[in-house]
Every structure is written in C-alpha cells, then in structure tokens.
User: Fold this.
Amino acid sequence: MTTGAGQQCSDEKERLVALIQELAALDGVSGHEQAVVARLVELFRPFAATVEVDSFGNLAAWLPSPVERPVLMVSAHSDEIGLVVKGIEPNGFLRVEKIGGVIDSLLPGRHVRVRGYRGVIGVRPGHLQSPEEQRAVPPLREIYVDLGFDSAEEVRALGIRLGDPIAYEEPVERLANPDRISGKALDNRVSCAVLVLLAERLAGAALRCRPVLVVTVQEEVGLRGAQMVAFRLSPDAAIVVDTVPAGGTPDTDFVRDLGIRIGGGPVLALASGMGGVRGHLAHPGMRDFLLRIAEERGIGVQLALFPRSTSDVAAVHLARGGIPSMVVNIARRYSHSPVETLDLNDVLATIDLLEAAVQTFDSTVSFDFLAGQGG
Assistant:
C-alpha cells in the first residue's frame, strides 16, 4: 500500500468513526426512529436521484443509474432496542416496559435518556441487599427510571408521557485498540453508516443495475419495516446489512457456540432461525455471487450459521413471489448490550464488498435454482 493509499484508508476510517458516533448518538428505539431517519435523509440526498420516506418511516434512496432494471436493494435497519414509559409514580419515578431484546440483567445502574432528558435506572442500595438479592436479577416490574425529580407533575412538565421511548445513554468510543469501538446502538447504526459511505463511493460509477439503498424500521420487534418496503419496492434481488453476535470470548466457545469473530471480515450467514425462529436459508444464486465477488476482490469473508435469531432478510426473501436475498453481517461482541463492540476493519471490508457487488450486479446474475444442485 502506498503512503497516499494508506492516508486515504486512514481518512475514511476516521470519517466512518465520526459517522457511526453521530448516528448512534441519535435515539431510535423501535417505533420512534424519526431522528435517525431524518438525519439519514440529509446524508443520502446529495448522492441519490430521489429519497422517499413512507408513512411508517422506511427510507428508500434511489441512486442514479442509466438502467431501470434489475433493481438491487441494499438495506439496513434504523431502530435499536430500548424501553418505553409504562407509568409515572406519584414521586416521579418511571415504570417501564421492554421494546425488543433488552437483557434484564443489564438494566440496573444504567444511564438512559427519555425524550432527550438524562436519567438513571435505579438500584436498591447495596447495603440493604441480602446476598441472595445481590446475585439475582430484579424483575422488570421492579425496574424504574429516576430523572432526578420528586413528583409526577415535574416529570410531566417535561412533556414525558406514557409510551415515550427510553434509550441507553452510552456513547460510541474507541477502545485501547483504536480499530475497535464500543457503545450503544451499533446494532444497527453501523450498517446505516455503511450505506451512507456506499452511496458516496458509488457517486458517478458506471452501473448496470438500479440500486436502491433502504433503511427499514422496527426490525427489533419483528422485521416489520422490511416486510413493508420489500413488498412495495419489489426488487429483483436484495442484500441485507446487519450486525451479528460474535464468539471467541471467554464465555462463548468459538466452535461449539458461535463460529464468528470480530476482525475476521464480513460474515455471510448461510442460515438463520433454524430452531423455529423466523429465519432464512441463503439463496444459492446470491450466495455464489457474493462469494465470487469476495474472491475476485481479495476480501476475506466468514461463513456462518445463526440458528437462534434472524435479521430483515427473513422478511425480505418472502416478499411477493420471493426475492433472492443474502445477508452480509458485521460481527459484534456483547450483542443487545450498551457496550456492543466491533472492529472498524470489518466495517470497511463490508463497504468494499458491497461496492463491488453493486458495481458488478446486472441481468446476467443467475438465480436458476437447479443450476446450483451440484453445490
């Protein structure tokens, strides 16, 4: 790598970090993604022919192209897990309910935001806890948010009402290894940042497909936005970009539990949701297309199974008469926590793979099911 190329890579990495930090700092609990979507509209607009946002908040940025078909959709979801205000106690404490896969044990003692106002999730004084209490996870019914006020009237004066979303307050920051970052909502703001940088890279490119970059809503509560937008747009093929849990930590065996690691490159999920959860089995045409692109461009990828969960690809591939789809994942540690952790080099490699895929995709890509019977 030349000095100029190295500087360019360094500059793009810094741009990536800044963009992830900006997007993750916006609160977008499922059903309340307005701030995230509004900012993404601004970021896509300079590079898109048109930007549309439907009544539920799904964003579609159509990139300039000399052809109308085939349409290739590349998508990421905008929402994050969180809490919602369930009730306000007379003394001003908020009772809560979960939205998405919030982990109960990670709630006590956390900083949160409600309508932009800072608060904490309270903890019973350690001096009063019995040894059994110290080892137990308090049930959600006992969880409360303290905004620092002493009456419901003071809380309501801020405009806080039932149904308001509550998000973790945990900024995205670099770790001791500067190539690795940690914070809240990396699932899936990192993929939103990927789509923005992809749009920038594709500006002026000679394309043989019509790309539409899509940001979906309500993925964390049932892949709802993806189902809506895939039906409406009816693309010829789709690539879903998301994050995926990683193994290789002391508490997660790489072979027996999860054969995915951060720093190992983009993850191509061959299957998900095999245990009854709504999932997918990789479309052979899209799988082979992305594997070919990765090999030709020298991009190292990881092949993996994700048996106990899923992503928007599970909804996208079932839309209308079926859409050939594949998911490209970015590995992250500590999933659905306020300290999700990933490797920036994986993110840049994912952008490289997507850029090459969009530039290469055309009407010659085969989706003949029987053509893959020897694979």
